[in-house]
Amino acid sequence: MNTINTEYHTDPKLNDGLISQFPIKLISSKTLFGIGNEILIQHRGEQYHLRLTRNDKLILTK
């Protein structure tokens, strides 16, 4: 099973320039997609599709 390596960072835009007390998890899209272009995300019993388009954009649909 692949391990997701994550980096934690804070986003000053979210806190008016203050460092966040709670870090935001940063995961590379390459780590999520691997060699594919679509993943399923399970959230509260629902499945969502995250797709990588030909123009290298992300689309999330239910």
Labels describing this entry:
62 residues
Written account of the structure:
With 62 residues, the protein is mainly beta. It has a single domain, classed as Ribbon (Complement Module, domain 1), CATH 2.10.70.10. Helix content is 8%, strand content 37%. The chain has 1 helix and 5 strands, in the order E-E-H-E-E-E. The strands form 2 sheets. Strands 3-4-5 form a 3-stranded antiparallel beta sheet, with no helix packed on it. A two-stranded antiparallel sheet has the order 1-2. It starts with 6 loop residues before the first strand and ends with a strand. InterPro entries: Hemin_uptake_protein_HemP (IPR019600).
Strand and helix map with partners:
Blueprint: E1 7-9, E2 24-26, H1 29-33, E3 38-43, E4 46-52, E5 58-61
Antiparallel strand pairs: 1-2, 3-4, 4-5
Summarize the structure in short.
This protein is mostly beta strands. It has 1 helix and 5 strands; from the N terminus they run ββαβββ. The protein has a single domain, classed as Complement Module, domain 1 (Ribbon), CATH 2.10.70.10.
